[in-house]
Amino acid sequence: MAQAADSGLVRNGVLNVCTGGDFPPMQYYANPGDEKLVGFEVDVVDAIAKQWSGATNYVVGDFKGLLPSLGAERCDLVASGIMVTKERLKAYDAVPYFVSNVVMVTAASDSETMSPLDLSGKVLAIEAGTTYEKTAADLNVELAKAGKAPAQIQTYPSASAVIEQILVGRAAATITQDTTAAFRIKQMPGRLQVPYNYGDGETYGIYLRKGNDNREALVKAIETLQTNGEMKALLQKWNLPETATDVKHTTD
């Protein structure tokens, strides 16, 4: 338990974690005005901190500013449903631990937007700073090749703001993960649907600064949660697939 504290992840008994706090069921506020975050990822990081005899302090900010905040040492981990990408790994370390699929979400009443190509000439709302921005840009390249009008891509600072655009009719669709889409649909029955699943599993990671033994300590903590059954219990608690955390922790 002392290993992580010695390597600098826990400072004065506190593990500082940067998160967007707006990506249910991973991390979010259950009610407006709540001060305490809840969610699967919150439970995982809390359990990791407990292994290291520390308590968590969540530093909440816009998604696109999370990794820069890590680099500036305003926190020591980033846990925010953040994908492991080669570009991000150039500057930061990460431990992959959860796999999810990308999906397109539309209003339940929309029977015309059934695939990404149907977004030609329509508004596509995207959370700023996410990998979905590239997915949206790639879509417009594909539409241009097909001789179709591009989608009108509009970015917003949070996942909830993106969903709101669909609910009020300002946007035809968004691109997000199957986990958060399922949560939103359950939260607002009959208002949203998933007409398209990209099918390519993408991996979330917990990010940290490069160097020291920090990554090794984090891998060991996650593996402990896997072997002692605690991770499986958390997956069941949040109604997530039992195999979602059966991923390799390497980034090769």
Please supply descriptive tags for the structure shown above.
252 residues; alpha/beta; eight-stranded mixed sheet; 33% helix; globular; disordered N terminus
Topology:
Elements (H helix, E strand, L loop, with lengths): L1 H5 L7 E6 L20 H12 L3 E6 L5 H6 L5 E7 L2 H4 L3 E15 L15 E5 L4 H14 L6 E5 L2 H9 L5 E5 H10 L4 E17 L5 H14 L2 H8 L15
Parallel strand pairs: 1-2, 1-3, 5-6, 5-7
Antiparallel strand pairs: 3-8, 4-7, 4-8
Describe the structure.
With 252 residues, the chain is of the alpha/beta class. It is 33% helix and 26% strand. An 8-stranded mixed beta sheet has the order 2-1-3-8-4-7-5-6, with helices on both faces. Helix 2 (40-51) links the parallel strand 1 (14-19) and strand 2 (55-60). Helix 2 packs across helix 8. The longest helix is centred in the middle third of the chain and has 14 residues, at 132-145. The radius of gyration is 19 Å and the shape is globular.
